[in-house]
Amino acid sequence: MLVDSHTHLDTSRFNGDREEVIERARRGGVTRMVDPGCDLASSRAALALAKAHPGTVFAGVGVHPHDATTYTEGVGGQLREMAREPEVVAIGEFGLDYFRMLSPREVQRAVFCAHLEMARECNLPCIIHVRDSHDDVIELLRAHGRDLRGVFHCFSGNVAQAEECLALEGFMLSFAGPLTKQGNALPEVARMVPPDRVLVETDSPYLVPKPRKDRRNEPLFVIHTAEKLAEIRGTTFEEIAHITTANAVRLFGLGEKKE
Known about the structure:
The protein is α/β, with parallel strands linked by helices and 259 residues long. It has helices at residues 18-27, 40-52, 73-83, 105-122, 134-144, 159-166, 186-192, 222-233, 237-252, and strands at 2-4, 30-36, 57-61, 88-97, 126-131, 150-152, 171-175, 198-200.
């Protein structure tokens, strides 16, 4: 049993076989999936998908840094309204992306802080996107997010950066397909993360893990990341499945009723 803690099942790349993809994951032991929104429309789509697959698909609502210029107070209000639905288990994905810079830096920072406040008001965990922006993300979380919880999704940093993330109590690191590739510091990070602070994900349809050669990632393939994590940590796949599932259930409250 595994949880894919981050998959974009609502995207158009799944339009032709979305139901088959979900069923394939379930049959393969990936029994729960979290679909984070990237803007207002995809947040609505993720929620609709979660409602159509109760207990299997769960939604996040938020605005990705690429789309930060689309965020307004009105959008924030609609996201808050959606966050009241029992299928919504997180605020996100949101964050800072200084690699592509599709939104101005100051706009990204302002929208990041707006999402932190939303997470606080809704008492939901954060799904945080970080790309070439680690220092600013940590700065803003230290200033505005000390009482929050969440996950640094698709963690891609080094050990020193991981230590700064883990110093924020309540936050976890999630590994995706890059853990299965060479040329990064992720194996060292994977060895040092406490067992109660680690998740696995696909970020599908992106980041296909080795040894898959598919052009599109899908939730079932999170198994390969979990297998690699077990290998790196010198433990069994079953143990990794157990701890990452327990962590996802605890962080997102999967299966729990909102008060």
